[in-house]
Write a structure and sequence with these properties.
heterodimer, A: 259 residues, alpha/beta, 7-stranded parallel sheet, B: 258 residues, 8 helices, globular
Protein backbone atom coordinates (compact mmCIF):
# COMPACT_ATOMS: atom_id res chain seq x y z
CA UNK A 1 0.00 0.00 0.00
CA UNK A 2 1.24 3.51 -0.73
CA UNK A 3 -0.22 6.08 1.64
CA UNK A 4 2.26 8.72 0.39
CA UNK A 5 3.97 8.99 3.78
CA UNK A 6 7.59 8.39 2.82
CA UNK A 7 9.95 10.40 5.03
CA UNK A 8 7.22 11.73 7.35
CA UNK A 9 7.87 11.97 11.08
CA UNK A 10 5.31 10.29 13.33
CA UNK A 11 4.80 9.99 17.08
CA UNK A 12 2.57 7.21 18.46
CA UNK A 13 1.52 7.19 22.11
CA UNK A 14 0.92 3.92 23.95
CA UNK A 15 2.20 1.89 21.04
CA UNK A 16 4.23 -0.93 22.57
CA UNK A 17 1.64 -3.51 21.52
CA UNK A 18 -1.87 -4.00 20.18
CA UNK A 19 -3.43 -1.22 18.11
CA UNK A 20 -0.64 1.30 18.75
CA UNK A 21 2.08 -1.12 17.66
CA UNK A 22 0.10 -2.05 14.57
CA UNK A 23 -0.19 1.64 13.62
CA UNK A 24 3.53 2.22 14.29
CA UNK A 25 4.43 -0.79 12.15
CA UNK A 26 2.22 0.32 9.26
CA UNK A 27 3.61 3.87 9.37
CA UNK A 28 7.13 2.41 9.37
CA UNK A 29 6.32 0.12 6.45
CA UNK A 30 5.04 3.18 4.58
CA UNK A 31 8.41 4.89 4.96
CA UNK A 32 7.66 7.14 7.93
CA UNK A 33 10.07 7.51 10.84
CA UNK A 34 8.19 6.57 13.98
CA UNK A 35 8.77 7.20 17.66
CA UNK A 36 6.68 5.17 20.09
CA UNK A 37 6.18 5.96 23.77
CA UNK A 38 4.66 3.54 26.27
CA UNK A 39 4.84 2.70 29.96
CA UNK A 40 5.80 -0.89 29.14
CA UNK A 41 9.54 -0.57 28.52
CA UNK A 42 10.09 -4.31 28.19
CA UNK A 43 7.55 -4.72 25.37
CA UNK A 44 8.85 -1.57 23.67
CA UNK A 45 12.25 -3.20 23.60
CA UNK A 46 10.84 -6.45 22.18
CA UNK A 47 8.65 -4.85 19.47
CA UNK A 48 10.52 -1.65 18.68
CA UNK A 49 13.32 -2.88 16.43
CA UNK A 50 12.04 -1.27 13.25
CA UNK A 51 11.02 1.99 14.85
CA UNK A 52 13.07 5.21 14.76
CA UNK A 53 12.96 5.53 18.55
CA UNK A 54 11.19 4.36 21.69
CA UNK A 55 10.64 6.05 25.02
CA UNK A 56 9.42 4.60 28.28
CA UNK A 57 7.12 6.90 30.24
CA UNK A 58 3.90 6.92 32.21
CA UNK A 59 1.82 8.93 29.75
CA UNK A 60 -1.02 9.28 32.25
CA UNK A 61 1.14 11.68 34.26
CA UNK A 62 2.01 15.28 33.28
CA UNK A 63 5.69 14.56 33.79
CA UNK A 64 5.57 11.44 31.62
CA UNK A 65 3.95 13.35 28.75
CA UNK A 66 6.47 16.20 29.08
CA UNK A 67 9.41 13.80 29.07
CA UNK A 68 8.11 11.88 26.06
CA UNK A 69 7.37 15.06 24.08
CA UNK A 70 10.83 16.40 24.88
CA UNK A 71 12.36 13.15 23.63
CA UNK A 72 10.34 13.31 20.40
CA UNK A 73 11.28 16.94 19.68
CA UNK A 74 14.94 16.28 20.36
CA UNK A 75 15.15 13.03 18.41
CA UNK A 76 13.31 14.41 15.36
CA UNK A 77 14.82 17.89 15.65
CA UNK A 78 11.32 19.34 15.22
CA UNK A 79 7.64 18.56 15.85
CA UNK A 80 6.30 15.47 14.07
CA UNK A 81 4.11 15.56 10.95
CA UNK A 82 1.81 12.92 12.40
CA UNK A 83 0.58 12.39 15.94
CA UNK A 84 -1.34 9.24 16.89
CA UNK A 85 -3.01 9.43 20.30
CA UNK A 86 -3.64 5.84 21.27
CA UNK A 87 -3.39 6.04 25.06
CA UNK A 88 -6.41 4.56 26.83
CA UNK A 89 -7.39 1.65 29.07
CA UNK A 90 -10.82 0.18 29.74
CA UNK A 91 -10.75 -1.32 33.19
CA UNK A 92 -14.18 -2.73 34.03
CA UNK A 93 -15.31 -1.65 37.48
CA UNK A 94 -18.98 -1.60 38.55
CA UNK A 95 -20.28 1.97 38.84
CA UNK A 96 -20.88 1.78 42.58
CA UNK A 97 -17.34 0.60 43.23
CA UNK A 98 -15.60 3.20 41.08
CA UNK A 99 -14.22 5.71 43.58
CA UNK A 100 -13.25 9.34 43.01
CA UNK A 101 -9.65 8.17 42.80
CA UNK A 102 -10.66 5.63 40.17
CA UNK A 103 -12.42 8.31 38.14
CA UNK A 104 -9.39 10.60 38.32
CA UNK A 105 -7.06 7.78 37.31
CA UNK A 106 -9.30 6.96 34.34
CA UNK A 107 -9.47 10.62 33.29
CA UNK A 108 -5.70 10.86 33.35
CA UNK A 109 -5.29 7.76 31.18
CA UNK A 110 -8.22 8.17 28.81
CA UNK A 111 -8.46 11.93 28.33
CA UNK A 112 -5.75 14.06 29.91
CA UNK A 113 -2.84 12.17 28.37
CA UNK A 114 -4.23 13.15 24.97
CA UNK A 115 -4.99 16.71 26.12
CA UNK A 116 -1.47 17.22 27.46
CA UNK A 117 0.18 15.73 24.37
CA UNK A 118 -1.92 17.84 22.00
CA UNK A 119 -1.36 20.99 24.08
CA UNK A 120 2.39 20.53 23.76
CA UNK A 121 2.62 19.40 20.16
CA UNK A 122 -0.22 20.96 18.13
CA UNK A 123 1.08 24.56 18.23
CA UNK A 124 4.47 23.27 17.13
CA UNK A 125 2.96 21.12 14.36
CA UNK A 126 1.01 24.14 13.12
CA UNK A 127 4.22 26.20 13.35
CA UNK A 128 5.95 23.64 11.13
CA UNK A 129 3.39 24.36 8.46
CA UNK A 130 0.97 21.56 9.21
CA UNK A 131 0.33 17.98 10.11
CA UNK A 132 -2.27 15.40 10.99
CA UNK A 133 -3.52 14.04 14.29
CA UNK A 134 -5.48 10.83 14.68
CA UNK A 135 -7.11 10.12 18.03
CA UNK A 136 -8.19 6.59 18.89
CA UNK A 137 -11.72 6.70 20.28
CA UNK A 138 -14.06 3.79 20.88
CA UNK A 139 -17.57 2.69 19.98
CA UNK A 140 -18.11 2.69 23.75
CA UNK A 141 -18.11 6.49 23.50
CA UNK A 142 -21.40 6.26 21.62
CA UNK A 143 -22.80 3.01 22.96
CA UNK A 144 -22.73 2.85 26.75
CA UNK A 145 -21.79 -0.29 28.61
CA UNK A 146 -22.33 -0.09 32.38
CA UNK A 147 -19.07 -1.86 33.25
CA UNK A 148 -16.91 0.80 31.62
CA UNK A 149 -18.86 4.02 32.08
CA UNK A 150 -15.75 6.04 32.79
CA UNK A 151 -13.98 4.81 29.67
CA UNK A 152 -17.01 5.50 27.44
CA UNK A 153 -17.46 8.97 28.91
CA UNK A 154 -13.86 9.98 28.33
CA UNK A 155 -13.91 8.47 24.84
CA UNK A 156 -16.89 10.62 23.83
CA UNK A 157 -14.76 13.44 25.26
CA UNK A 158 -12.06 12.41 22.81
CA UNK A 159 -14.53 12.88 19.94
CA UNK A 160 -15.47 16.33 21.23
CA UNK A 161 -11.80 17.25 21.55
CA UNK A 162 -11.21 15.95 18.03
CA UNK A 163 -13.77 18.36 16.61
CA UNK A 164 -12.72 21.27 18.81
CA UNK A 165 -9.04 20.89 17.98
CA UNK A 166 -9.83 20.41 14.28
CA UNK A 167 -11.58 23.76 14.37
CA UNK A 168 -8.89 25.44 16.47
CA UNK A 169 -5.96 24.34 14.30
CA UNK A 170 -7.57 24.41 10.83
CA UNK A 171 -6.39 24.62 8.18
CA UNK A 172 -2.85 23.73 9.25
CA UNK A 173 -3.36 20.63 11.36
CA UNK A 174 -6.08 18.13 10.49
CA UNK A 175 -7.51 16.31 13.53
CA UNK A 176 -9.61 13.18 13.13
CA UNK A 177 -10.64 10.15 15.16
CA UNK A 178 -11.07 6.43 14.66
CA UNK A 179 -13.62 4.66 16.86
CA UNK A 180 -13.11 0.91 16.83
CA UNK A 181 -15.58 -1.61 18.07
CA UNK A 182 -14.12 -4.59 19.91
CA UNK A 183 -10.62 -5.40 18.68
CA UNK A 184 -8.92 -8.63 19.59
CA UNK A 185 -6.08 -7.30 21.74
CA UNK A 186 -4.74 -8.05 25.20
CA UNK A 187 -7.65 -6.08 26.67
CA UNK A 188 -9.85 -9.06 25.72
CA UNK A 189 -7.43 -11.94 25.46
CA UNK A 190 -5.13 -11.53 28.47
CA UNK A 191 -5.70 -13.81 31.48
CA UNK A 192 -8.35 -12.05 33.53
CA UNK A 193 -9.26 -9.87 30.53
CA UNK A 194 -12.75 -9.15 29.25
CA UNK A 195 -13.18 -12.63 27.70
CA UNK A 196 -12.34 -14.30 31.00
CA UNK A 197 -14.52 -11.87 32.95
CA UNK A 198 -17.56 -12.66 30.79
CA UNK A 199 -16.77 -16.36 31.08
CA UNK A 200 -16.67 -16.14 34.87
CA UNK A 201 -19.84 -14.08 35.03
CA UNK A 202 -21.90 -16.46 32.90
CA UNK A 203 -20.12 -19.75 33.58
CA UNK A 204 -18.85 -20.14 30.01
CA UNK A 205 -15.57 -21.29 28.52
CA UNK A 206 -13.57 -18.72 26.55
CA UNK A 207 -15.07 -19.63 23.17
CA UNK A 208 -18.58 -19.45 24.59
CA UNK A 209 -17.80 -16.13 26.26
CA UNK A 210 -16.60 -14.60 22.99
CA UNK A 211 -19.66 -15.94 21.15
CA UNK A 212 -21.98 -14.50 23.79
CA UNK A 213 -20.17 -11.17 23.69
CA UNK A 214 -20.61 -10.86 19.91
CA UNK A 215 -24.22 -12.06 19.88
CA UNK A 216 -25.26 -9.75 22.71
CA UNK A 217 -23.89 -6.81 20.79
CA UNK A 218 -25.13 -7.75 17.34
CA UNK A 219 -21.65 -7.59 15.83
CA UNK A 220 -22.01 -9.06 12.32
CA UNK A 221 -18.30 -8.91 11.53
CA UNK A 222 -17.03 -10.23 14.85
CA UNK A 223 -13.85 -8.85 16.38
CA UNK A 224 -11.62 -6.47 14.50
CA UNK A 225 -7.87 -6.89 14.22
CA UNK A 226 -5.37 -4.20 15.20
CA UNK A 227 -4.51 -3.94 11.48
CA UNK A 228 -8.09 -2.84 10.70
CA UNK A 229 -7.64 0.12 13.02
CA UNK A 230 -4.14 0.80 11.69
CA UNK A 231 -5.38 1.05 8.09
CA UNK A 232 -8.09 3.51 9.09
CA UNK A 233 -5.76 5.62 11.24
CA UNK A 234 -2.97 5.74 8.68
CA UNK A 235 -5.46 6.61 5.91
CA UNK A 236 -6.70 9.58 7.96
CA UNK A 237 -3.12 10.65 8.69
CA UNK A 238 -2.20 10.52 5.00
CA UNK A 239 -2.60 13.02 2.14
CA UNK A 240 -5.35 10.75 0.76
CA UNK A 241 -7.54 12.30 3.46
CA UNK A 242 -6.43 15.88 2.88
CA UNK A 243 -9.98 17.29 2.93
CA UNK A 244 -11.03 15.35 6.02
CA UNK A 245 -10.85 17.13 9.37
CA UNK A 246 -12.92 16.90 12.54
CA UNK A 247 -14.29 13.57 11.35
CA UNK A 248 -14.69 10.26 13.12
CA UNK A 249 -14.40 6.89 11.39
CA UNK A 250 -16.34 4.06 13.05
CA UNK A 251 -14.99 0.54 12.74
CA UNK A 252 -17.21 -2.46 13.21
CA UNK A 253 -19.09 -1.34 16.29
CA UNK A 254 -21.33 1.33 14.88
CA UNK A 255 -24.28 -0.89 14.04
CA UNK A 256 -25.00 -1.37 17.70
CA UNK A 257 -26.59 2.04 17.82
CA UNK A 258 -25.67 5.60 18.53
CA UNK A 259 -26.27 8.14 21.25
CA UNK B 1 -2.13 9.54 -9.65
CA UNK B 2 -0.95 5.99 -9.13
CA UNK B 3 -3.37 4.22 -6.83
CA UNK B 4 -2.28 0.72 -7.80
CA UNK B 5 -1.40 -0.23 -4.22
CA UNK B 6 -5.06 -0.26 -3.09
CA UNK B 7 -5.38 -3.85 -4.34
CA UNK B 8 -8.23 -3.06 -6.76
CA UNK B 9 -6.59 -4.40 -9.92
CA UNK B 10 -9.19 -5.83 -12.35
CA UNK B 11 -12.13 -5.24 -9.99
CA UNK B 12 -15.36 -4.08 -11.60
CA UNK B 13 -16.98 -0.85 -10.44
CA UNK B 14 -20.18 0.94 -11.34
CA UNK B 15 -20.20 4.72 -10.89
CA UNK B 16 -23.46 6.61 -11.39
CA UNK B 17 -23.48 10.23 -12.50
CA UNK B 18 -20.06 9.67 -14.04
CA UNK B 19 -20.03 12.28 -16.78
CA UNK B 20 -18.87 15.18 -14.62
CA UNK B 21 -17.70 16.48 -11.28
CA UNK B 22 -17.47 14.06 -8.37
CA UNK B 23 -18.62 11.02 -10.36
CA UNK B 24 -16.04 11.63 -13.05
CA UNK B 25 -13.21 12.07 -10.50
CA UNK B 26 -14.21 8.87 -8.69
CA UNK B 27 -14.47 6.88 -11.94
CA UNK B 28 -11.02 8.03 -13.06
CA UNK B 29 -9.56 7.44 -9.57
CA UNK B 30 -10.91 3.89 -9.49
CA UNK B 31 -9.49 3.27 -12.97
CA UNK B 32 -6.12 4.60 -11.79
CA UNK B 33 -6.37 1.97 -9.05
CA UNK B 34 -6.87 -0.69 -11.73
CA UNK B 35 -10.62 -1.28 -11.87
CA UNK B 36 -12.78 -1.56 -14.96
CA UNK B 37 -15.64 0.92 -14.87
CA UNK B 38 -19.28 1.02 -15.80
CA UNK B 39 -20.07 4.68 -16.39
CA UNK B 40 -23.74 5.37 -15.79
CA UNK B 41 -25.13 8.64 -17.04
CA UNK B 42 -28.57 10.21 -17.48
CA UNK B 43 -30.09 9.12 -20.83
CA UNK B 44 -29.99 12.55 -22.45
CA UNK B 45 -27.24 15.13 -22.82
CA UNK B 46 -23.51 15.20 -22.04
CA UNK B 47 -22.59 12.62 -24.71
CA UNK B 48 -19.25 14.24 -25.52
CA UNK B 49 -18.38 14.47 -21.84
CA UNK B 50 -19.12 10.82 -21.02
CA UNK B 51 -17.17 9.69 -24.07
CA UNK B 52 -14.30 11.83 -22.81
CA UNK B 53 -14.35 9.96 -19.49
CA UNK B 54 -14.51 6.65 -21.35
CA UNK B 55 -11.46 7.60 -23.45
CA UNK B 56 -9.56 8.72 -20.38
CA UNK B 57 -10.19 5.39 -18.65
CA UNK B 58 -9.38 3.35 -21.75
CA UNK B 59 -6.12 5.28 -22.08
CA UNK B 60 -5.25 3.88 -18.64
CA UNK B 61 -5.65 0.39 -20.09
CA UNK B 62 -8.95 -0.22 -18.29
CA UNK B 63 -12.29 -1.11 -19.87
CA UNK B 64 -15.12 1.42 -19.66
CA UNK B 65 -18.75 0.69 -20.50
CA UNK B 66 -21.32 3.48 -20.78
CA UNK B 67 -24.91 2.86 -19.68
CA UNK B 68 -27.79 5.29 -20.19
CA UNK B 69 -29.49 5.22 -16.82
CA UNK B 70 -32.16 7.34 -15.20
CA UNK B 71 -31.38 6.30 -11.64
CA UNK B 72 -34.83 7.36 -10.44
CA UNK B 73 -36.32 4.52 -12.50
CA UNK B 74 -35.97 1.06 -10.95
CA UNK B 75 -36.03 -0.65 -14.37
CA UNK B 76 -33.10 1.51 -15.52
CA UNK B 77 -31.10 0.73 -12.39
CA UNK B 78 -31.71 -3.01 -12.73
CA UNK B 79 -30.68 -2.82 -16.38
CA UNK B 80 -27.49 -0.96 -15.41
CA UNK B 81 -26.41 -3.73 -13.03
CA UNK B 82 -27.47 -6.38 -15.53
CA UNK B 83 -25.37 -4.78 -18.28
CA UNK B 84 -22.38 -4.58 -15.92
CA UNK B 85 -22.69 -8.25 -15.05
CA UNK B 86 -23.12 -9.23 -18.67
CA UNK B 87 -20.05 -7.28 -19.78
CA UNK B 88 -17.70 -8.09 -16.92
CA UNK B 89 -19.15 -11.17 -15.23
CA UNK B 90 -19.32 -9.56 -11.80
CA UNK B 91 -19.76 -6.33 -9.84
CA UNK B 92 -17.30 -5.63 -7.02
CA UNK B 93 -17.93 -1.96 -6.31
CA UNK B 94 -20.94 0.31 -6.66
CA UNK B 95 -20.64 4.06 -6.16
CA UNK B 96 -24.05 5.72 -5.97
CA UNK B 97 -23.13 9.27 -6.84
CA UNK B 98 -25.98 10.48 -9.07
CA UNK B 99 -28.54 12.72 -7.44
CA UNK B 100 -30.68 15.73 -8.05
CA UNK B 101 -32.24 18.43 -5.93
CA UNK B 102 -34.65 21.26 -6.37
CA UNK B 103 -33.80 24.53 -4.64
CA UNK B 104 -37.13 25.94 -3.49
CA UNK B 105 -37.74 27.18 0.02
CA UNK B 106 -39.85 24.61 1.87
CA UNK B 107 -42.96 26.79 1.72
CA UNK B 108 -42.85 26.64 -2.09
CA UNK B 109 -41.83 23.00 -2.75
CA UNK B 110 -44.30 21.32 -5.11
CA UNK B 111 -45.22 17.65 -5.12
CA UNK B 112 -43.30 17.28 -8.40
CA UNK B 113 -40.14 18.81 -6.97
CA UNK B 114 -40.41 16.69 -3.82
CA UNK B 115 -40.93 13.47 -5.78
CA UNK B 116 -38.14 14.22 -8.25
CA UNK B 117 -35.63 15.01 -5.48
CA UNK B 118 -36.53 11.93 -3.46
CA UNK B 119 -36.57 9.65 -6.51
CA UNK B 120 -33.19 10.80 -7.80
CA UNK B 121 -31.44 11.08 -4.44
CA UNK B 122 -32.91 8.35 -2.18
CA UNK B 123 -35.09 5.85 -4.06
CA UNK B 124 -32.33 5.57 -6.66
CA UNK B 125 -29.79 4.63 -4.00
CA UNK B 126 -31.98 1.97 -2.39
CA UNK B 127 -32.78 0.15 -5.62
CA UNK B 128 -29.24 0.41 -6.98
CA UNK B 129 -27.97 -1.12 -3.71
CA UNK B 130 -30.59 -3.85 -3.96
CA UNK B 131 -29.73 -4.68 -7.57
CA UNK B 132 -26.00 -4.72 -6.82
CA UNK B 133 -26.40 -6.82 -3.65
CA UNK B 134 -28.34 -9.42 -5.65
CA UNK B 135 -25.15 -9.87 -7.70
CA UNK B 136 -22.62 -9.30 -4.92
CA UNK B 137 -24.04 -11.74 -2.34
CA UNK B 138 -23.93 -14.82 -4.62
CA UNK B 139 -20.42 -13.89 -5.81
CA UNK B 140 -19.17 -13.67 -2.19
CA UNK B 141 -19.17 -9.96 -1.45
CA UNK B 142 -18.77 -6.42 -2.63
CA UNK B 143 -18.37 -2.82 -1.57
CA UNK B 144 -21.06 -0.19 -1.91
CA UNK B 145 -20.26 3.47 -1.38
CA UNK B 146 -23.10 5.96 -1.33
CA UNK B 147 -22.37 9.64 -1.72
CA UNK B 148 -24.10 11.45 1.12
CA UNK B 149 -23.87 15.10 2.08
CA UNK B 150 -23.09 17.44 4.93
CA UNK B 151 -26.74 18.41 4.50
CA UNK B 152 -27.64 14.91 5.64
CA UNK B 153 -26.15 15.88 9.02
CA UNK B 154 -27.01 19.56 9.32
CA UNK B 155 -29.94 21.52 7.92
CA UNK B 156 -29.70 24.09 5.15
CA UNK B 157 -32.27 26.54 3.85
CA UNK B 158 -33.78 25.71 0.45
CA UNK B 159 -32.58 22.10 0.69
CA UNK B 160 -35.18 20.64 3.05
CA UNK B 161 -36.14 17.71 0.84
CA UNK B 162 -32.61 17.03 -0.37
CA UNK B 163 -31.30 17.12 3.21
CA UNK B 164 -33.96 14.60 4.24
CA UNK B 165 -33.06 12.40 1.27
CA UNK B 166 -29.34 12.51 2.13
CA UNK B 167 -29.99 11.80 5.82
CA UNK B 168 -32.01 8.88 4.46
CA UNK B 169 -29.01 7.74 2.42
CA UNK B 170 -26.82 7.81 5.54
CA UNK B 171 -29.25 5.77 7.60
CA UNK B 172 -30.15 3.44 4.76
CA UNK B 173 -26.48 2.51 4.49
CA UNK B 174 -26.49 1.35 8.11
CA UNK B 175 -29.70 -0.60 7.68
CA UNK B 176 -28.49 -2.35 4.51
CA UNK B 177 -25.14 -3.17 6.13
CA UNK B 178 -26.98 -4.84 8.96
CA UNK B 179 -28.69 -7.18 6.50
CA UNK B 180 -25.74 -7.84 4.19
CA UNK B 181 -22.48 -7.48 6.16
CA UNK B 182 -22.30 -11.16 7.03
CA UNK B 183 -22.58 -12.02 3.34
CA UNK B 184 -19.61 -9.79 2.58
CA UNK B 185 -21.41 -6.73 1.28
CA UNK B 186 -20.65 -3.54 3.19
CA UNK B 187 -22.44 -0.28 2.58
CA UNK B 188 -20.78 2.96 3.63
CA UNK B 189 -21.18 6.66 2.91
CA UNK B 190 -18.78 9.38 1.86
CA UNK B 191 -20.37 12.71 2.74
CA UNK B 192 -18.93 15.80 1.06
CA UNK B 193 -19.86 19.43 1.37
CA UNK B 194 -20.51 21.54 -1.72
CA UNK B 195 -17.80 20.74 -4.22
CA UNK B 196 -16.32 22.89 -6.96
CA UNK B 197 -17.95 21.28 -9.98
CA UNK B 198 -19.70 22.56 -13.06
CA UNK B 199 -23.17 21.74 -11.77
CA UNK B 200 -22.55 23.75 -8.57
CA UNK B 201 -21.02 26.70 -10.39
CA UNK B 202 -24.18 28.76 -10.29
CA UNK B 203 -24.20 28.55 -6.49
CA UNK B 204 -20.48 28.99 -5.97
CA UNK B 205 -20.46 32.15 -8.10
CA UNK B 206 -23.22 33.89 -6.14
CA UNK B 207 -21.92 37.21 -4.79
CA UNK B 208 -20.48 36.74 -1.33
CA UNK B 209 -21.05 32.96 -1.22
CA UNK B 210 -17.42 32.02 -1.62
CA UNK B 211 -16.26 34.38 1.13
CA UNK B 212 -18.99 33.21 3.48
CA UNK B 213 -18.33 29.53 2.90
CA UNK B 214 -14.55 29.49 2.90
CA UNK B 215 -14.17 31.95 5.76
CA UNK B 216 -17.04 30.93 8.01
CA UNK B 217 -18.20 27.43 7.13
CA UNK B 218 -15.04 25.64 6.02
CA UNK B 219 -12.36 25.41 8.73
CA UNK B 220 -9.98 24.07 6.11
CA UNK B 221 -10.33 27.39 4.29
CA UNK B 222 -10.82 26.21 0.73
CA UNK B 223 -13.35 24.55 -1.55
CA UNK B 224 -13.82 20.82 -1.78
CA UNK B 225 -12.49 19.56 -5.11
CA UNK B 226 -13.86 16.39 -6.77
CA UNK B 227 -10.43 14.78 -6.34
CA UNK B 228 -10.67 15.26 -2.56
CA UNK B 229 -13.24 12.44 -2.43
CA UNK B 230 -11.15 9.90 -4.31
CA UNK B 231 -8.99 8.78 -1.35
CA UNK B 232 -12.02 8.10 0.83
CA UNK B 233 -13.82 6.17 -1.93
CA UNK B 234 -10.73 4.06 -2.70
CA UNK B 235 -10.25 3.28 1.00
CA UNK B 236 -13.88 2.17 1.36
CA UNK B 237 -13.67 0.19 -1.92
CA UNK B 238 -10.65 -1.77 -0.76
CA UNK B 239 -10.04 -4.53 1.75
CA UNK B 240 -8.28 -1.93 3.91
CA UNK B 241 -11.73 -1.01 5.19
CA UNK B 242 -13.20 -4.48 5.67
CA UNK B 243 -14.17 -3.67 9.26
CA UNK B 244 -15.90 -0.39 8.34
CA UNK B 245 -19.62 -1.10 8.18
CA UNK B 246 -22.53 1.29 7.71
CA UNK B 247 -20.37 4.31 8.41
CA UNK B 248 -20.77 7.86 7.17
CA UNK B 249 -17.33 9.33 6.55
CA UNK B 250 -17.43 13.12 6.38
CA UNK B 251 -15.16 14.59 3.71
CA UNK B 252 -16.28 18.13 4.24
CA UNK B 253 -13.24 20.17 5.28
CA UNK B 254 -14.75 20.37 8.75
CA UNK B 255 -18.06 22.05 7.73
CA UNK B 256 -20.07 19.90 10.16
CA UNK B 257 -17.82 20.34 13.18
CA UNK B 258 -19.13 23.88 13.65
Amino acid sequence: MDYQLNGKLAYVTAGANGIGASIANLLTAEGARVIVADCDGKTLLENGNGWHGTFTADLSSPQGVDDAVEFVLEKFGRAPDILINNLGVADPVPFEQLTDEGWMRSMNVNLLGLVRTCRSLLPKMAGNGGGAVVNIGSDLGKQPEPEVIDYGLFKIGVLHLTKSLAKAYAPKVRVNAVSPGPVWTGLFSRPGGIADQIGAQFGLDREGAVKKFLEDRYMPLGFGEPADVANAAVFLASPLAKFITGANLDLGGTLRGLI
Amino acid sequence: MDYSSFGLQDKVAIVTGASQGIGRAIAVGLAQAGTHIVLAKYPSGRETEIQGVQSEIEALGRRALITRTDVSKVADVNAMVEQAKEAFGRVDILVNNAGWTGNSMAIDVTEEEYDATMAASLKSVFFACQAAARVMIPQGGGKIINIGSNFGVIAFKSRSVYAAAKAGVHHLSRALSLEWARQGVTVNVVAPCITETESRKVILERPGYKEWATQQMLPIGRWNQPEDLVGAVLFLSSSLSDMVVGHTLMVDGGWTIQ
